[in-house]
Amino acid sequence: MTRHRVLRAELRTLAGLCAALVLAGCASSPPRAPQASVTKTPPPPDAVKQAIVHRLDTTPHETPAARAALLGFYDQRDDAPAWFAPDARTPRDVSGQFIDYLKGIDRQGLSRRHYIDSTTWAALQVPGVRRPDALARQDIALSRAFLGLARDIDNGRVHNAAIRSDWRHDPDPTNDDARLTTALQDDDPSQVLNALQPDHAGYRELIAALAHYRDIQSAGGWPRIASGPTLRAGMQDPRIPTLRERLHITGDLDDPSTTATTARTYTPRLADAVRHFQRRHGLDADGRVGPDTLTALDVPVGVRIDTLKLNLERWRWMPRHFGLRYIAVNIPAFSLTAVDDGVTELAMNVIVGGAHDNRATPVFADRMRYLIFRPFWNVPHHIAVDEIVPHARRDPQYMADRGYQIVKAFAPHATPLPVTPQHLSDVVAGRLQIRQAGGRGNALGLVKFMFPNPYAVYLHSTPATSLFSRSQRDLSHGCVRVADPVALARFALAGRRDWNTARIQQAMHQGGRQRVNLAQPLPVYLMYWTAFVNADGVNFRRDIYGRDARLGQALAAAPSGSA
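Request: output the structure for the sequence above.
Response:
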């Protein structure tokens, strides 16, 4: 029987009598304010230990892992208090440092209330010697808060696999209680906790953005612009002074001052400020305030703050390092970047899956391993049945004109079968498949970038290049179409000296299907950032798949440190 179990058995045997003595008569007294837990005489050490054991035995825990960490920590300490001085039973300096850290935790998009309840928080502000029961409650509350906060900073608060992806393949092996022990030994909890924060510029930039938008909120937010006709350069409108103020508050317009003649005029400089705002929000940067731009302008600052907090949570899910070379796709921003040793080598527009009919591009990470030039498009069954077979039954030339073939299986050397009514019926029944031959008219374009995954999603080029000029590009069946496939192929094949731009172009436009392996696997991250910072400032994007809404609900329901 462990020491904890022996002590707890003794407490149960005394059937509350010892507890009553230990608690110094508190059970018979009415509830008091936090000051009532302060005494002038330090209690005996054994009384404090017994109070801690009793409190540990009755404290609810979010998860078995949280309970094990807390019990293990106090077991190593022989149930001595951690945050209070062993002689006078007054708070140690380290407890004040941790309390100060909790006061500022909202800067990271977290809330102190998730870690310590208001009653205990108020009691912790009271100086002086604690009674055993109060000391035990406060000491354990600080330990639980540290353990929960450390887990949340390190790996996020939400762990529902339907909401977040498993980005990490190298979890921190450090035990939770070891982190707490280190923080107490070093007398600097902030150092341990700060080291757990995501070491990514994107995270730090969002923390700064959150502080900026909270300042805006504290100053009263921004005014709402009334509905009305689309505002264009040269127009006169009574809403324009409000528009100037709105754009100045978020830094899109540097100087809002005007003359008496231009106060209500939509000037070219104001149109430039609107374009800047539109770029930050992924809108058509036409310099006009139409319905979409007006809607974005009128989103309350509190909603923008919530979006920043959601994306800070997403950063806490990220791996410690993305790798020396990697490709990152931001789905809501319809963008791709290719990074080499911290330098963005490529940035291009992409097209992602639509928000309907299960076409959403999944959020996950994998490794690109090879390219296929002039690929076949293996048509998914639902597309074949819903879109191709009906046309083929009406028009005998439909499939031949577009390079579609009926095959027994998706294999590079499969022999095409004749397009007959029976074979089309077999396609519908799932006994045969439809693919599209490689070439200029192929839906995948002239190259696809393969990182085998359970979603059957990949990057590829497309013949429909005009779609990249749209601001909203959630148009595919789930795969990601890239605007500059030659540049991306060059980046992916950088380790292959036998592949240069000329050879890539030749492979795309001549010959048949060709597979080329990468020199080494290349990490690919399909991510979902609805708030981020770039050269234009703080950016927001439309929640095209409703993932923000689901994450917000999960955060509201998630206990602290729920790993």
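The radius of gyration is 31 Å.
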